[in-house]
Amino acid sequence: PVADEARILAHLARLGVRVAEFLPTDRATLYAGEVEDSFILIPRLASDHFNAAELVSLEEKIGGALAELHLALARYPWPANSYAEQLSESLEQDLMLPPDVAEGFTRRRCGMTAALADLPTQLIHGDLTLENVLLRRPAAVSGFIDFDHLPLVPRIWDVAKYLSRRIRLRWRQGSTASDLGRLDYFACFLIGYH
């Protein structure tokens, strides 16, 4: 899997997607250190910190960068040592949701599961969170990190993971219910992705 990840990162870099490729060690291996305590060397990609208010204006750029990442991953020409997430099966299980969300989801579960069942699958990031998207001032996506998942699933997995994480972050940071209803960053992200 690590060799596959290195090949996928090299493929993405060749297509112009900013990623932290693995750096071979002096011994021409991907690992450094003893096997039980080994690590992989990667260059540091430059990034800046943005506060929550500034991030809203960046969501469209993040959505667009994710779309470019997905297009590049779809063009990966070789089989990858990956795994397939069982998206529809996951939705059939009991999910830990707030009561109001759980009620609405229960009514829509069958339709959502059916809609997802026939979506095409491809390699995706798999753990797309704001922490794994690197941003630079004034307003640019400088790269992506943390590609150790790379599952074969519909692209909606990354979109949903990113947006659901954004809701949880706002919620956890003391936002009120009315703030959670103001999801303008959803629209900006999806416009950029589209």
Structure description:
This protein has helices at residues 2-14, 52-56, 59-74, 87-92, 99-117, 156-172, 177-181, 184-193; strands spanning 31-32, 39-40, 122-123, 133-136, 140-144, 152-153. The protein is mainly alpha-helical and 194 residues long. The longest helix has 19 residues, at 99-117. It is globular.
Quickly count the helices. 8
What's the story with the biggest beta sheet?
2 strands, antiparallel
Low-confidence stretches: 176-181
Element string (H = helix, E = strand): HEEHHHHEEEEHHH
Average of per-residue pLDDT values: 87
Shape: globular
Structural class by helix and strand composition: mainly alpha
What structural keywords apply?
194 residues, mainly alpha, 8 helices, 6 strands, 47% helix
Blueprint (SSEs and pairs):
Layout (H helix, E strand, L loop, with lengths): L1 H13 L16 E2 L6 E2 L11 H5 L2 H16 L12 H6 L6 H19 L4 E2 L9 E4 L3 E5 L7 E2 L2 H17 L4 H5 L2 H10 L1
Antiparallel strand pairs: 1-2, 3-6, 4-5
Helix pairs in contact: 3-8
